[in-house]
Fold this protein.
Amino acid sequence: MFFIAGYATLQYFVPELILGIAGFIILALGMFIVSRRLYAGVTFGSLAVAFIIELFFMNNPYSLFGGTILINNFGTYFALLFLISAMLITVPSIMNISHKPEIFYALLLFVTIGMLIAASSTNLIILFVAFEAVSTGTYVMSGFHKTDRTLEASTKYFFTGAVSTSIIVMGLSYYFEATGSFSITPQVISSNQAMLVALLLLMIGFGFKMAIFPMHQWAIDTYDGSENSVSAFLSTGSKLVAFMIMMRIFISGFSGEAYDYYLIFTILAIVTMTYGNLSALSQTNLKRLLAYSSIAQAGYLILVFSAAGFAQDNSLGNTLVYDAVAAGMIYSLVYIFMKGGAFLAMNLSPNPKVQISDLSGLAKKSPVAAISLSILLLSLAGIPFTGGFVSKLFLFLVLIEVKLWWLAVIAILNSAISVFYYLRVILVIYRGQPAEEFRITRLSTIPIVVCAIIVIALGVYFQLFQTLVGFASGLFGV
């Protein structure tokens, strides 16, 4: 009976087991074989198998370990996103990861395991441990190459992460004092002063991880200094783990009669969007421009908390809360491809400090790469017929539905600001004279072409939102 029960439980962790076994196989192969393509192939294959299992076999709701692990469509959706973010950088990493590639690819798999566990957990301790596993792995990944720039990026990331971790631990302790449990269940914020302290500390701690203003500065230097694939992973997968955890905590865990905390998120969203976009306007370093753009994108993401908070506080119904969560879910999907693809496009230049001028004349050297990168940038700006437009459209419509039309106007104005610096890059790509060198290879071109195609496809597939509204109820354990 014990083995039968163990097998019944183990079947829900097959994706994690596959990734773990693949990671140890890669480490073992590293003692005898030095082949980046082999490691990348094993990594991509294991991620693809895990993706298929999550997609087709992890749909039926199921609770494990007293409700601390909950398998449902909401968690499975984010698990799929995390697998996509890892697959997206697996092949492009071959270009730049030359030292100890077996460690890099094994780390990528182990980090993804932490992401998958976080996606299905409803217990703050398990969430914290899984998230720290992700953070620890990415600290090491950001320092690969061992150049001054990557080591500086890794050091800043590590020390900022250590501070945010200590703040999160303090927040968890106050949460336990207020509720007597680490389970994420609906709580009334006004019921206890300890709950208010927990709210503030968890908001600050995970705000660091999401790079929300004013807890953002580490992200600029880390995204700029890390290898291009690592920058893409940090700005997508790592950030979305924090976003998903914050949705569990602040939309599901801190629900109840007193929901005034949405005002804090509203202020943070406005300042983060505005600061990120205005700072990007003056950048000549393209990676730093994309880094500031990532800050602005974090501001758009946390608009979800404002919408969900206002809907619950004013008894507008669960339907609008689900709409807000679904808007965040579709934004997360599009964000992986448009932001991840944009960072991967930095591989087109041999310069580690990619300047906007380094892409001058790219359209003449590789029209396909130029068109693909332009599509990704236009999507980030929210131009129609792209996934970025659709995701922002649903988010802004939800804000209007919950009577936060003025906040939607501010977000739209910020999107208009972003058009200027994205168009500046596109003009250089098409009008400038070709740079002396470009790295136009299949490894540098195919990933951004694939991302551009998917971004266009998501820009016309409006039905996805209604599907995600149904998944959104899983955030509340439904």
